[in-house]
Structure formats: structure tokens, C-alpha cells
């Protein structure tokens, strides 16, 4: 069955462009559009999309609050949220990820990258773009702890290797890159990542990256 996609953006021209790109793919189906967060909530309830392509800055209700309601405990369906941000990186993206978004994508990303991101998110994975994840978190370091705060008790449940993996995830490395860095197999990395998510009660790699920064395990600007 085709992946059902809801387009949420306050610019009709952008929605039209996204629709043209996605409807050219046999496994993707655009089931609706919304111009703000409130409309998005109504459409999610009515259309039950698999993936919501979510803009951040919109009238009436922004993408952060809409994401929080779509992915929160009172959610009406299985929809995943993929956040769209501008080239200079929207200051609300970190909040959207914390609210439950499964990843983020630049609005000027190539069509193939957009399509692949939707497929990845629909499959239950996180779209954590290595090329911009670190830049995003470093840019908004002022919103994150200084690293002087007490380390959360949950962090102590991780093994030394799992901590290493979490640090690399926070830097935006893929499983293959982590495997190469630690001289282990990708399967081993996937196992470690799974253990990290389970022990810390996190949903995906995106939340793991945010957790690593918020806990002070990884500090903005550090190598």
C-alpha cells in the first residue's frame, strides 16, 4: 500500500511543488493539505496519514504545537511527523524534535532526498541528517544545558560502549559510520542503539541526539 502523506505549509505554492514531487512516486500518495497547525490536526484525524510533512512557522498554530498534539499520548493515529525547515535552520526545530517529530529536512532539499526521507520516517526510523544535525544543535546551544548540570541517573544505566554509540549518534553519524569509527559491524551498532533507546526510554535516534546534548554528555562545539 502507498504511504499516505499530509502536506502542512502556509504557502500554497510550496504545497503544490511537494505534491507534484510526491505524486510522481508509485509508493507515495498525498491524501490532503493544510495551511496551519489547526487544520493539520483536523486533517490527521480525518485522513489518518502515515507521514505529516510539517512546516514550523504558520498562523494560528505553529508546527511545534501541532507536532506535539499529533505524536503525543492522546494521538488519534499512527502518523509520523517530518519537519521542514529553512536553509538557515529554524530556531524551533529542536523544540519540534523534542515534541515528537521523527526528523527534519531542509525545504530546498533535492526531490530524491525528500522522497527518501518520507519513506524512512514511514518505516518507523528517524530522519537524522548527518550533514546538518550537529550544525543545528550547535547553533541553538543557548537552549541547551552548559554541561555543568548533574548527569541524569538514566545515563548511568548505559555501558561504556553504549555511551560511545550515543555520542556518535548525537554527532549525526549513520550506523555505517559508527561501525567504521568503532571497528564493529553495523548489526552490532544497531543492537547498541536499540539498547540505548530502550534504557533511556527514547523513541528514536532524533530523541537520543537531543538527550545527549540536554544531559551534557555531548557539548555544543565539542569534537
Q: Return residue spans where pLDDT drops below 50 for at least 5 consecutive residues.
A: none
* CATH H level, superfamily name of the largest domain: Response regulator
- The average pLDDT is 83
Counted by DSSP, the helix tally is 10
Fraction of residues in β-strands = 5-15%
| Radius of gyration, in angstroms, nearest whole number | 17 Å
How far is it from the N-terminal to the C-terminal residue, by CA?
43 Å
Spatial order of the strands in the main sheet? 2-1-3-4-5
Provide the succession of SSEs.
Answer: EHEHEHEHEHHHHHH
Assembly level: single chain
Class inferred from helices and paired strands: alpha/beta
* Tally of separate domains: 2
In the CATH hierarchy, the third-tier topology of the largest domain is known as Rossmann fold
So what's the overall shape? globular
Largest sheet: 5 strands, parallel
CATH architecture call of the largest domain: 3-Layer(aba) Sandwich
Instruction: Output the CATH class name of the largest domain.
Output: Alpha Beta
Task: Tell how many strands the DSSP assignment holds.
Answer: 5
Amino acid at each position: 500500500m502507498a504511504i499516505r502523506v499530509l502536506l502542512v505549509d502556509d504557502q500554497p505554492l510550496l504545497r503544490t511543488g511537494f505534491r507534484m514531487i510526491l505524486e510522481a512516486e508509485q509508493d507515495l500518495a498525498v491524501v490532503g493539505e493544510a495551511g496551519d497547525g489547526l487544520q493539520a490536526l483536523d486533517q490527521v484525524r480525518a485522513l489518518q496519514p502515515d507521514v505529516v510533512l510539517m512546516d514550523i512557522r504558520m498562523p494560528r498554530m505553529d508546527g511545534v504545537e501541532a507536532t506535539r498534539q499529533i505524536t503525543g499520548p492522546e494521538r488519534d493515529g499512527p502518523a509520523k511527523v517530518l519537519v521542514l525547515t529553512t536553509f538557515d535552520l529554524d530556531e524551533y526545530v529542536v523544540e519540534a524534535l523534542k515534541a515528537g517529530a521523527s526528523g527534519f529536512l531542509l525545504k530546498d532539499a533535492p526531490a530524491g532526498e525528500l522522497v527518501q526521507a518520507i519513506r524512512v520516517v514511514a518505516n518507523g526510523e528517524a530522519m537524522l541528517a548527518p550533514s546538518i544535525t550537529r550544525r543545528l544543535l550547535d547553533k541553538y546551544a543557548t537552549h541547551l544545558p552548559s554541561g555543568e548540570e548533574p548527569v541524569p541517573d538514566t545515563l548511568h544505566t548505559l555501558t561504556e560502549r553504549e555511551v560511545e554509540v550515543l555520542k556518535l549518534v548525537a554527532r549525526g553519524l549513520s550506523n555505517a559510520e559508527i561501525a567504521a569509527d568503532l571497528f564493529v559491524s553495523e548489526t552490532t551498532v544497531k543492537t547498541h542503539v536499540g539498547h540505548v533507546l530502550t534504557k533511556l526510554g527514547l523513541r528514536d535516534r532524533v530523541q537520543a541526539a537531543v538527550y545527549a546534548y540536554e544531559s551534557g554528555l555531548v557539548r555544543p562545539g565539542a569534537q
